[in-house]
Records
---
Amino acid sequence: RKEVEQDPGPFNVPEGATVAFNCTYSNSASQSFFWYRQDCRKEPKLLMSVYSSGNEDGRFTAQLNRASQYISLLIRDSKLSDSATYLCVVTRILNSGYSTLTFGKGTMLLVSP
Amino acid sequence: GAVVSQHPSRVICKSGTSVKIECRSLDFQATTMFWYRQFPKQSLMLMATSNEGSKATYEQGVEKDKFLINHASLTLSTLTVTSAHPEDSSFYICSARQGLANEKLFFGSGTQLSVL
């Protein structure tokens, strides 16, 4: 099983729709979780961190379910500008003190007029 | 916020030439830098991790003699694609991290390499 898995999509939704993505991780020792957004031929940009209690930033809500080992991202009232690839990132601290970051392959979202 | 500058943004070169890509952290000391490659419509692939002052750790399947990484200072890492071939054409991105256990990544803007 891959360490971090995402449905590659694409998810095609109309403007104004609500869309949700999930990301599963295999290592129960994973400690921190993030969603990044990547536009075509651009670098990934941090969208939001994900906390166990869930967190919201405007139209974006992120949730973490440690028992089932997945994180989710919910986008409400989709805008055309939300079209991008959303990357799930999972980190854990090694015995050496270094942290490892593992990227999922990304889920592509296409919002149409 | 922290800034990582990557240069050049685009390179077109002939097959057989070597290409150097620079990644600089402008306002922080990058203990660790990561180099990624991304082919069209594919995900980011980690190529190597480089810690300042030590040899880079390469991911499985990445040739260390072909992709030379130097991280001689806390603010600069370079990736040299030696004897580039058309199959090396890709989008290369660096990212930097401050501190060994710091989980926040700062990305360069990427370099599009096209080998003719």
Note: The mean pLDDT of chain B is 89.
---
Amino acid sequence: QKEVEQNSGPLSVPEGAIASLNCTYSDRGSQSFFWYRQYSGKSPELIMSIYSNGDKEDGRFTAQLNKASQYVSLLIRDSQPSDSATYLCAVYTGRRALTFGSGTRLQVQP
Amino acid sequence: DGGITQSPKYLFRKEGQNVTLSCEQNLNHDAMYWYRQDPGQGLRLIYYSQIVNDFQKGDIAEGYSVSREKKESFPLTVTSAQKNPTAFYLCASSMTRIRNTGELFFGEGSRLTVL
């Protein structure tokens, strides 16, 4: 079982819709959870971090964490073509460094 | 501006050659990391260093070597022992208390191709 799992996609949504990206993790001791956005050929950039159960909103982005289910998600409201990218879920267990999922490719159709 | 500088951006290597990828940061971060990314995959940890003159193996350290002689610099050598070195290499840094900052700062990456 991979430590951090994501559906590779592509996830295709129309412009203006809500995109929902999901991630599960295996280590119940995980402490911190992050979403990075990566455009093709570029390096990842942090868009959201979440540390406790519940929702965290930042502009059009909402991160949701459910530690009991070992599940973290990212919602993107009013999706724009510029949101088309690969979204990487990353988890910190308190050891070493962030562990990344394989990423979900999002396509926003104009 | 503060940031992480990786060089070269593109590198071609013949089989059997060692190559060194440079990573320099002026963010005054304590920790530095090297990740490898293959097409359609996430980032896999090669090596990391929490302090100067100390570094630890990640998940895929075989065929790679690093040094951390200065806080600002964390070069990665891809040796001829690395069987499949063609990949996108990402260097990152963070403050030591990564849980609090919540962010890895990434360089722009180095794309290595073995001919």
Note: DSSP finds one helix and eleven strands in chain B.
